[in-house]
Design brief:
This protein is an alpha+beta fold and about 525 residues long. The chain contains 8 helices and 22 strands. The strands form 3 sheets. Strands 5-2-1-11-10-9-19-20-21-22 form a 10-stranded mixed sheet. Strands 12-13-14-15-17-16-18 form a 7-stranded mixed sheet. Strands 3, 4, 6, 7 and 8 form a 5-stranded antiparallel sheet that branches. The longest helix has 17 residues. The protein is globular and about 65 Å long. It starts with 8 loop residues before the first helix and ends with a strand.
């Protein structure tokens, strides 16, 4: 069993304050105006773990809500160190990387040469300022058959609608990984009983998206979760615009105008995430899907459900609301992931399987008839708008039962546990868990009750609480905990498990273990 070293959240959050005390505010101000101020206001992060390394990230931003973060145009050399202990007595790698205004003085270090399945600590230094300390963990070696996996997955963290107590809880958990499934930021303001505000309006350009990402990154509990664990990140729609598909947005009708906005949004996303330089966007295009293997225990297939997908079917007035069915919804050429990404996924699913395969993607995959009464109605922005593409994916997952497929999802602001079937009365071929939302308001009790009543393969649903999910995997089975915040409007709210599920190897399905 993996032993997780104690990680000091106080040390992480106090690092920036300590760094500020190292500044010399009256020296060299003519050369670099940021000197004497803490440039590490957005914390540190790591991501994309491999057996021999990971990506380390920070961004220099003494005035984080300003478009350029208060850094000016000059490049800055940033030193980094990686150690085997929190006190940095056993430093194993160090170096220097240049932060430039072109990438908003973001910093990423792509580590190699580390040992598999172990913890490392890291930090950055710019001028006289030192960053908080972060902790990361390498993946197990590819031939490792014994090391279990435990990770959290989360999505939908509308900044105004609540505090990030869920991330405070997540930072304290013994985890190998965090997977974020999208809606990391929100472009628009909405909701009830807002506890804080988005300054400015809806972002449409690079300065606007940079400021919005920086705002979210200033939250101390989000910073703590990033500093405590490596992350895998994908996006959904609100990182750019609600319900967009490829080059079409309900808000921005002109595709050329929208793609310019998408390019700015992708650029800002890249600048604020612990992802490798190979993902750097080229205009409105940015490849983020990939496979991440954790020994012989787990394959994570991280998917992009926005950039390449077919446009919505059956739409009236450019709305993705539930509608009566139409022939276009069942057209075989429609794709949720886009045909090229579908082909990549099919190829990955033909590789020798690990004990568990997790498809990490954006929204509820199970069919969800949403209308009340006998009439059927489907939400066209979800998988029901791409029914044939879903059937292709389920066929691929069912082709090798040794794969033990699991699907993890976000987007719908509710917890769900579902059995994925190729036919309504058929056997389950995979098990799906939707991990709620960190803060974003959920569906009403009546809406969730209707979904459960009309869709018996949805075995559990709850939309009145906010939170995230924990998944633990070993040779004996899979367990999933849904953890919910008592009151998302309170920064110090307790967080507790509301239900636990289990899945047995070779037997997809939802089993409630405890509540």
């Amino acid at each position: 069993m993996t032993t997780f070293p104690k990680f000091s959240r106080r040390r992480v959050l106090g690092g920036a304050l300590a760094a500020a005390s190292l500044g010399q505010p009256f020296l060299q101000l003519h050369a670099q105006a940021w000197r004497g101020r803490d440039p590490f206001t957005l914390g540190v992060a790591s991501g994309c773990p491999r057996p021999d390394g990971m990506v380390l990230w920070t961004r220099l931003a003494p005035d984080p809500l300003q478009p350029v973060g208060g850094m000016g145009d000059a490049p800055v050399d940033v030193a980094w160190e990686v150690a085997e202990d929190e006190r940095f007595r056993r430093i194993v790698q160090r170096g220097t990387v240049r932060a430039t205004a072109e990438l908003a003085h973001s910093v990423r270090v792509e580590l190699q040469g580390l040992s598999p399945a172990r913890f490392y600590w890291y930090r950055f230094t710019a001028g006289d300022a030192r960053s908080p300390v972060g902790r990361s963990r390498t993946a197990p070696a590819e031939d490792d058959t014994a090391t279990p996996a435990r990770f959290a997955f989360a999505s939908c963290q509308q900044f105004e609608q609540g505090f990030y107590a869920a991330y405070r809880d997540m930072a304290a958990q013994p985890l190998d990984l965090v997977i974020h499934l999208g809606d990391y930021i929100y472009e628009s303001s909405w909701g009830k009983r807002l506890v804080r505000k988005h300054p400015g309006g809806i972002p449409v350009d690079l300065p606007g998206f940079r400021s919005r990402h920086a705002l979210y990154k200033t939250d101390p509990d989000l910073q703590a979760a990033h500093a405590a664990h490596p992350w895998l990140v994908t996006w959904d729609d609100h990182e750019v615009a609600n319900d967009y598909t490829d080059d079409v947005s309900p808000r921005t009708v002109d595709p050329e105008e929208f793609l310019a906005m998408r390019a700015a949004a992708y650029q800002a996303w890249f600048e604020h995430m612990p992802v490798p330089m190979r993902m750097r966007p080229r205009g409105p295009a940015m490849p983020i899907h990939g496979r991440y293997r954790f020994g012989q225990m787990l394959d994570v297939l991280l998917m992009d459900g926005r950039q390449y997908r077919s446009h919505h079917a059956c739409l009236l007035k450019r709305s993705a609301s539930p509608l009566t069915d139409c022939a276009d919804r069942l057209a075989p050429g429609r794709s949720y992931f886009g045909m090229a990404q579908e082909a990549w996924l099919a190829q990955e699913l033909q590789q020798p399987p690990t004990r568990w395969t997790v498809v990490a993607q954006q929204t509820l995959m199970a069919e969800a008839d949403r209308k009340t009464g006998p009439e059927h109605g489907y939400w066209m922005d979800g998988w029901d708008g791409y029914a044939v593409a879903r059937a292709r994916l389920l066929d691929a997952l069912a082709a090798d039962p040794r794969r033990n497929p699991l699907v993890i999802s976000g987007d719908v602001h509710a917890f769900f546990a579902a059995e994925l079937k190729r036919e309504p009365d058929g056997k389950a071929v995979a098990t799906e868990f939707v991990g709620g939302s960190i803060t974003s308001e959920g569906p009403s009790l009546s809406n969730v009750a209707n979904l459960l009543a009309k869709n018996p393969h949805l075995r559990y649903g709850r939309g009145d609480v906010r939170g995230y999910a924990l998944m633990s995997l070993d040779a004996r089975g899979c367990t999933v905990d849904f953890r919910a915040v008592d009151d998302v409007k309170l920064a110090d709210s307790p967080v507790n498990r509301i239900v636990r599920f289990s899945v047995e190897p070779g037997a997809p399905g939802v089993h409630v273990e405890s509540t």
